[in-house]
Amino acid sequence: MRKKDNKKIEAIKQAVIELSRQEGLSNLTTARIAKRAGVSPATIYLNYEDKTDLLSKVYQEVKVKLEGNLKSVINTDTSLEDQIVATLGFTVSQYKAYPDLATFMGLMWQNQDFLDDETVKISNTLNDSLKQLFERIKASPKYTNTSFEVLESFFTIPTSILMRNHFELTEEEEQQVISMVIKAIQK
């Protein structure tokens, strides 16, 4: 049995992220991915069933990379507002640190038909830390009791603005946007 070549797998993943950003998902082919990664198309099929499997696995890894440490920044011993600020600040900092990954995640979020059913289900499931924060927000008399979907939409505003501004916002602008989100969900 062949041993997996982690360098080739990483090159394939990087090629997927770069090509999807540069050329979009509809133009993304395994042949182009292989060429960009410097591997043969057969190497892709040794590691992934098909393009959907490849995109799904890359998406799952990117989601973990961008959201995985969220739990560590939410200190439940602080005020709910501080938890919201920490969460939004963390998300913005992750998107700034990994703009290519953030762009890829956004593309996949908007084009879920390129993902397998399991990954779509995962992508539509809130991170546990975020879900618990939303439950605390809903239970608080200070905040509007609205659906998780509405809260999630408000929580994406800072990153949407960041992406629209090519990942360049000043600290003051970030804080303004975060304050606006907090005011929008308060009673």
TrEMBL record:
Residues 6-66 form the HTH tetR-type domain. It comes from Holzapfeliella saturejae. Keywords: DNA-binding. Transmembrane segments: none annotated. The keyword DNA-binding applies. InterPro entries: Homeodomain-like_sf, HTH-type_Tx_Regulator, HTH_TetR. Residues 29-48 bind DNA. The lineage of its organism: Bacteria, Bacillati, Bacillota, Bacilli, Lactobacillales. It comes from the Bacteria. This is TetR/AcrR family transcriptional regulator.
